[in-house]
Design goal:
The radius of gyration is 21 Å and the shape is globular. The strands form 2 sheets. The protein has a 9-stranded antiparallel β-sheet with strand order 1-2-3-4-5-6-7-8-9, sandwiched between helices. About 11% of the residues have low confidence. By secondary structure, it is mainly β. It contains 4 helices and 17 strands.
Length: 293
């Protein structure tokens, strides 16, 4: 999985990055009072780049949830070009804070990827981040209403693979807890594991799929085509949405016959919501894995 957090900080643009400076808003530029000393919540930066394409606007929104998940949204916007020239990315990862040292670590689920260390501090404008081993410094501030509204518009008009990441759904079915862990990578592979637990007993059923984005105007164009890993001829289509770190999906009627209330009621039981996988979920799943041995 791409290290979007690092990518956002070190290479927001892929074209001729030569100088990076950051803007932030402050109600009182002369104040020396630190207004915020809490890493949790959302932080925003508009990044100005001195390069060959000055029309490019770059924005970043980082959200540190108290459950140990950090979500990174980055935007590369070309306001004078067709909307398909612009790009946006969204990813979520684990993070761990050392308040005494003023650091946090981004922890990647992929064992081949090394964790990333960042230093953070607060000033009158908000928060300053510095990546360990790098001279890069980024100034962020709490997002304003207008900034969040602007990003919300970008989210609606610029397509992206927001579903990439690790997700979990939990459900109690007649006393048996069912945990579905779904990992969607950037290379068209979807790994699912369904854990069924009853007291001290646990069993796991794995599933694996190929997936690709399906070109359609239905469901706001947010449809993926799925094939079982061992039977590519079998195909199904699923719509998806991501909001507030919740991935919701359901069967998509690609023939365009799914607009009636009757059809929507029939598919209601197949709609599933997954939340972002957290460090607490990892502890639980590790425990369930040990029960399988």
């Amino acid at each position: 999985m791409k290290k979007i957090f690092l990518w956002m900080l070190t290479a927001i643009l892929t074209c001729g990055l030569t100088l990076l400076s950051l803007t932030s808003c402050s109600d009182d530029d002369d104040s020396t009072t630190i207004k915020d000393t809490n890493l949790s919540g959302s932080w925003f930066a508009q990044i100005k780049v001195d390069e060959k394409s000055p029309d490019c606007e770059n924005y970043a929104l980082l959200t540190f949830d108290k459950n140990g998940v950090v979500t990174t949204r980055s935007y590369e916007i070309y306001p004078n070009e067709p909307i398909n020239y612009s790009e946006r990315f969204r990813r979520h990862e684990f993070y761990n804070v050392n308040e005494a040292a003023g650091t946090f670590t981004i922890q990647y689920d992929d064992a081949e990827e090394e964790d990333a260390l960042f230093y953070y501090s607060f000033n009158k404008e908000g928060m300053v981040l510095k990546q360990a081993g790098s001279d890069l410094i980024i100034q962020l501030h709490r997002p304003t209403y207008s900034e969040l509204k602007m990003l919300s518009v970008f989210d609606k008009v610029i397509s992206s693979d927001d579903y990439v990441g690790k997700w979990i759904n939990e459900k109690n079915e007649a006393g048996i807890m069912k945990y579905t862990v779904m990992t969607i990578d950037e290379d068209g592979i979807m790994d699912c594991k369904v854990y069924l637990t009853n007291e001290d007993k646990c069993q796991c059923v794995p599933f694996k799929f190929y997936y690709s984005e399906y070109d359609t105007k239905e469901h706001n164009g947010q449809v993926i085509e799925m094939h079982p890993y061992d039977n590519y001829k079998q195909v199904s289509y699923w719509w998806w949405t991501v909001k507030d770190n919740i991935l919701t999906t359901g069967p998509a009627d690609i023939e365009g016959n799914g607009d009636s209330d009757e059809d929507e009621d029939e598919d209601e039981d197949e709609i599933v919501s997954y939340r972002a996988f957290t460090p607490a979920d990892k502890v639980l799943i590790d425990k369930l894995e040990s029960m399988l041995e």
